[in-house]
């Protein structure tokens, strides 16, 4: 039975991933931003364990993960939580850049650092949920795209560094997915939302499971996922 540490399980892609992994009997550690969310997640996924930490405060992650109850072995660390705020560069203040880079980049870097011993112990797998915007930056999402471009760099350095420890690293780049984040962005861009042209969160979760289940003689290092057949 595999053990995974997952961020973002409260919504969208993360929730679908938690559902899929729970259904197949895997053990989950779920990061929740506050106690209320942790309680809700334990009700929804009764076999999971929770860690309360706000990814907007990466410096507090070490304390949240300290203690005898912290995971000693992890088969995977799944960085799914993220934020995306609309904002042309000319209108994006320091606060927007700070929040976006902190949650999408600095927190995953710190969480990875803290959980690497547990991942090395199990020859585990780090998966970063990136975005098409991490390869081609669209207008109106400069801070988000910058955070995802940098997340790609983090993944590539980590992959090379951890190869001797047999820790695998994958970046997943989905196109538009029908989640609360995507619906909020469409509203902000004043675009009509059509879920039928989006990936479902379940489809992205299924791709994540495929990445994890790949035989250990190889790694799916980068996975592009586009809507449509
Ligand atoms: N939707 C898309 O079209 C799309 C496309 C490509 C990539 N992605 C990426 O996929 C990932 C998941 O996105 P989604 O669409 O599923 O978004 P979502 O429905 O908005 O869910 C985002 C999750 O991140 C968590 N989160 C945000 N800020 C946090 C913080 N400060 N501390 C702890 N948790 C925090 C949220 O927690 P709460 O539940 O507590 O709010 C929520 O569970 C993101 O990395 C996103 O960039 C999405």
TrEMBL record:
Swiss-Prot/TrEMBL keywords: Oxidoreductase
Pfam families: adh_short
Domain Ketoreductase: 2-183
Cited SUPFAM superfamilies: NAD(P)-binding Rossmann-fold domains (SSF51735)
Gene Ontology molecular-function annotations: oxidoreductase activity
Any one of the GO CC terms: membrane
Keyword Cell inner membrane: no
Superkingdom assignment: Bacteria
Family: Belongs to the short-chain dehydrogenases/reductases (SDR) family.
PANTHER family: DEHYDROGENASE/REDUCTASE SDR FAMILY MEMBER 7B, DEHYDROGENASE_REDUCTASE SDR FAMILY MEMBER 7B
NCBIfam families: PRK08219.1 (NF006073)
Name of the protein this chain belongs to: Ketoreductase domain-containing protein
